Amino acid sequence: MAHKILIFLLLLVTWVVFSGQFDVFHLVLGLISCGLVTLMSADLLFREREPPIRRWILEGARLARYLVWLLWQIVLANFAVLRLALVPGAMSEISPSIVHFKTRLKSDFARFLLANSITLTPGTVTIKIVGDDLYVHAISRDAASGLGREMERRIAQVYDGENTNEQVGRGS
Q1: Cα–Cα distance between 34 and 151 in angstroms, integer?
Q2: Helical H runs in the chain?
Q3: Which among 3, 53, 46 has a CA at the least distance from the CA of 160?
Q4: Per-residue pLDDT tens digits for 36-86
């Protein structure tokens, strides 16, 4: 039950921060929405239900840190795509390709988070996930280079703690 309360609170804080609306209607809508999402998907976020609440809080804090990093990466990728569109001669750098790589993330939710993080980053779209294999469309060679490596490492840190540098690597 404690993990559901933590998930609800994380969702509600995210709702309030991103909505920027503090009137009664929007706050009640946020409470209802976050409650429904928590009931439907609480089992996806945290792997185990038995560990102490300290572990859940640490995992939640690492996830929050990852999301802040991801938002910054989205901003940087937006500028990169904007440069491709607006700078004269940059159109020659556009080289669409499908990139395949294997992930060593263990849980389905971690792989789901990686795929959606890639898709949220402008210039890349995860088009297919088959087990540990991800297929991503990238708008340019620059967008394709190093695709997902840092994201994968950071997501592994969220769910596996500190022992991730050796566990997460690259496939072909």
Answers
A1: 26
A2: 2-19, 24-45, 53-86, 108-120, 141-144, 149-160
A3: 46
A4: 988 887 666 655 555 567 777 888 889 899 999 999 999 999 998 999 889
Rounded to 10 deg, the angle between the 108-120 and 53-86 helix axes is 30
Are residues 118 and 151 in contact, defined by beta-carbon separation less than 8 angstroms?
Answer: yes
Whole-Å CA distances, 164 to 9, 55, 143: 27, 17, 24
Q: What is the H or E stretch that residue 148 is in? A: none
CA–CA gap between residue 164 and residue 33 (Å, rounded):
34
**Rounded Cα–Cα distance for residues 61 and 67 (Å):** 10
Tokens standing for residue 32: 């209802």
Q: How far apart are CA 78 and CA 164, in angstroms?
A: 29
> How far does Cα 113 stand from its chain's mean position?
4
The full set of domain ranges for the chain reads 1-45, 51-172
In the chain, the amino acid numbered 46 is: F
Does the predicted TM-score (pTM) go above 0.70? no
By C-alpha distance, which of 42, 70, 67 is closest to 56? 42
Looking up tokens 């921060």 gives 17
Residue 18, burial from CB neighbour count under 10 angstroms (0-12, 13-18, 19+): exposed
- The position carrying tokens 């210039």 is 123
